[in-house]
Amino acid sequence: MSYRQRRGGRGGRREGGGGGRRGGGRRGGGGGGGRREGGGGGRRGGGGRREGGGGRRGGRGGRREGGRGGRGGRGGRGGRGGRGRGGRGRGGGGRQFEQRNRRITNNDVVEGKFNKKICGKIGDPVQIETNYFPVAFGRKTIHQYHVTFLPEILNRRTRFIIVKKSLQFEKTIFDGEALVFSLQNFGDIEKDVQMGQKTVKVTIRYKAELEQNQASQCMNITMNQVIEQMNLQRIGRNYFDSSDSTDFPEYHLQMWNGFFHTVSHTKSGLSVNTDLIHKIVRTETVLDQMYQIIKQSRKKKTKNPFGDKAIQNRIQGKFQGKIILTKYNNRTYQISNIDFQMSPKSTFKVNQGEDVLETDFQTYYKNQPKCKEMGLKITDLHQPLIEIKRKIPGGILRNKQRKQKQIQKEKEKEKEKEKEKRKDYDVIYLIPEFCYLTGLTDEMRNDYSLMRVLSGGMFISPGKRFNSLEKFMRSILKNNKAKKKLQEWGMELSPLPTVVMGRILPQTKIHVNKSSFEAGVNANWTNSLRGVKLIEPKNFKTWGIVYAEGTDNQVDTFYDKLQWVSRPMGVTLSEPEYFPIPRNPRVKEYLTQLKRIKKRYDLLVCVLPDSDKRRYDAIKQHLCLNYPTPSQCVLLKTLNDERKLASVCTKIVHQMVCKTGGALWHVNLPKKEPILFIGVDVSRDLRSKRGAVAGFVASTDPQCTHFFSKVELLSHKTQEIVGKLGEFTKEAIKKFTTKTRKLPAHIIVFRDGVGDSQIEFVMREEVQSIQKYFKKIKIDYDPKFTFVIVQKRVKTRFNVNSENPRPGTVIDNVITKKGVWDWFMVPQSVNQGTATPTHFHCVFDNSQMKPDLLQSITFKLCHMYYNWPGTVRVPNVCQYAHCLSFFIGQSIHKEVHRSLQDKLYFL
């Protein structure tokens, strides 16, 4: 057993000591001191066998980092503990670090160190290693200042230069926009700084004195500066090791390995959350891929093929909105436009000392030192340029607006008009020949062989991941420049991750018709579901199959297999009506056949020759908007694989049942009162540049097996859905009441798609928007109300003895946020790579619900997603809301017919 797994042993081996094992005697004597980081106290155990036995000897001091000698454990009633002797190591001792960042366990929760409201108790305890590394901060306060520039300076690099010239003090940090942090209180400063021919007036005003728990932004900037000393290349917000990359020449791809980090204030104090990350970069330039489009178009060769309108449209469609990397400075940009009116021969103005010169792009890049060093040359003078629109930092604009409002409130409207006229972005142009696309396309993600090759580097086991993270943190502490930067700000970084006590929730029982079974240790009941009657099967008396001529045999085999797998489920399939269409059908042929169908069918199955998105979208749009009918699309190649056909048909029957209002299984929820569950998520709308779709799915029965759905099309993803949330909730309550003949006593909302910066808005606006609609149902209607934010994109990782945690593992202490009710949960089993937990944050609750109850309900709902006989990462209503918003945003782009709103037509 390794020292990570051992609960006791000698004194605390990490972070300066701490307790050891509970010992051999009934009342322990002294024991050995910590071996690392200046270990302190000795064992609780090792004393006399009876209550009177004293400790044999005191703890020995830490061997490293100059630990103080461990004090002997307290003796038994009749004995006396020994005293420890001092350590041999260097430094000032580990006790102080230990006191500031001691390990916190569930015992602290019971004793009231944390609010009892936000920590549960149910479940089997499990020791979990996390990717949070404790940070001790020696300073009590940090001073914050606000910076303004007159005239405004939009270039970030120029602002840094100006602030550096204005402040001669050491130990100051500028965030690049409007904030300065310092360990000194140097008061207000006004200074004129000369920049070429222009004088800039800099005003630095004292703003506030920050406590440790308010200094996360400052600490993050400091950690960035620390990691910059490690010879890593910054790309976006993360850091990558260019020497640690893997090439995939057959796919023209390269994978870069790097590190993510952020400093956060947790319940146990400041911690650095760090993780391994990867970036996929194409080895073909954007210009190379433009040439491929020209080649595929089979147009006649011309001197300038980029002048062809059809080629321009294809290039624009392929690259617009994509993320690119410029390798000469490793910066990422999002493509706003491909400007075919611009070329390397186009001219622009550039500042050179005090002069403003006009030059062309070819000459400009030719004279750049980095381009010379890398041997970059422009070879095609006809290539269009990539247009990038960069937003002016919001802090500058917002702070200026606030100042204007304070000075002249009466001119507020006038200033707002000026703001609308003024551009809030600047434009730069890049050379396609020097740019590379990043990330994977949908086509690449669907390439099984490619993903299998990439998975070897991307899916890292917990044991390997945590070994790499510890190695990285130790390398920081061994780097003299990085260590000096930490010392400047009084920061002490632990090279060892935080270990916490989590809980594994009890297994959930799955109920189907007259039988039930446990979900299992891996929370997957695929095998248990075979040959079992569903809780609410459906009879398909009128249904049809649309297929291409020449595939009659595959369709007959498909129907026979559907019949065979559906009988044990209690599903009745009558003979379908067949609708053949010509061989190799295009989109038009499918739509023509579908438009001929006038009779109402329970469901239509469409057999598709390939995965052409245009055909799929056209079929779904017709059957969701014009002829509202549940539908199921099946690829022909799926029907050709006889080995997997039974398994495929089982899943298809399940979807057919769900899409027509049936139900597969249910779980017993731990609360008897009728609860209405709501899931909300937002996805991008492919049809518009900035458009988005909000999906709303609510349960209509207490067992959460039937649902009501709505969508709201948003003009952009940041547009709020506050106005519609209350209205949709009101409709959902009416549907629930109609079905159950009872008003829901408790409403629980799971809101996905919310970033940390939006949480305050959601708490203030969306919660109130829903609450005010309760009175519109009934004047005295005041149900219990719980609102939970669900976050899937988190960088938290867990390690349990070099394996992933079991499904149902919960952590709600130590690494969770201070002062809020939140928890991490791993609902699903992960066999490849490291599991990503889901973060749940309860922002409102007036039901006095205990943490154990809400966590149990959340976990049980993760068993209720009908598209998979196993647990998913989020509650079912949340997953359905995601499927709905994604489906509408990808294929439909409109609100569907009302008759489909009480069915899971979008699965």
Automatic annotation (TrEMBL):
Residues 603-893 form the Piwi domain. GO terms for molecular function: RNA binding. Residues 1-105, 398-418 are annotated as: Disordered. Residues 407-418 have a biased composition (Basic and acidic residues). PANTHER family: EUKARYOTIC TRANSLATION INITIATION FACTOR 2C. It comes from the Eukaryota. Residues 1-11 have a biased composition (Basic residues). Residues 285-439 form the PAZ domain. CDD domains: PAZ_piwi_like, Piwi_piwi-like_Euk. This is Piwi-like protein. It comes from Anaeramoeba flamelloides. Residues 17-45, 69-79 have a biased composition (Gly residues). Belongs to the argonaute family.
